[in-house]
Design brief:
about 50% helix
Length: about 150
């Protein structure tokens, strides 16, 4: 006499076709989970890389804007080194940027003759100004520079 397993009332016996379909469905779910596990780190790295790159672009644009505003202040009559640095810091503070250095060339631009060029250069580190620092752009410095011509004698 063949022994038959006990089945609860209301359940039905699975045939070999149903078992084959069940293992195929389970196999597909397992493959999807494996693909997800392999792709997720790459997608996260791509996402955070994009965010960090956008931070660096924002930093570059902020430094360019600050240097441009500083140069604009430097070329008008009555400007001095303090006014230029204050204007640059004001722009950077409004954009939440911590600068590393501000350089004004020539050093004594107040006495520069009409038509001479004045350059304002602002430098900042990426890791000090990134919201989502992952180290992708670690050790990099970004600079913004602007050159304008003196408007007065």
């Amino acid at each position: 006499m063949k022994h038959r397993p006990y089945l609860r009332p209301g359940t039905r016996r699975l045939t070999s076709v149903a078992l084959g379909q069940l293992t195929g469905a389970a196999r597909r779910r397992g493959a999807a989970a494996l693909e997800f596990a392999l792709c997720l780190p790459m997608l996260l790295l791509l996402t955070f890389g994009i965010i960090e790159t956008c931070d660096a672009i924002f930093l570059k644009q902020s430094l360019l804007l600050a240097a441009q505003e500083g140069a604009r202040v430097a070329v008008v009559p009555g400007a001095n080194d303090g006014n230029v640095r204050q204007q640059v810091r004001l722009i950077l503070q409004a954009r939440g940027v911590r600068e590393e250095s501000i350089t004004i060339t020539p050093g004594n631009f107040v006495n520069a003759p009409f038509g001479s060029l004045i350059t304002v250069n602002v430098v900042a580190r990426v890791e000090q100004n990134s919201i989502s620092y992952m180290g992708l752009l670690s050790g990099r410095r970004v600079n913004g520079s602007c050159t304008m011509m003196m408007e007065h004698n």
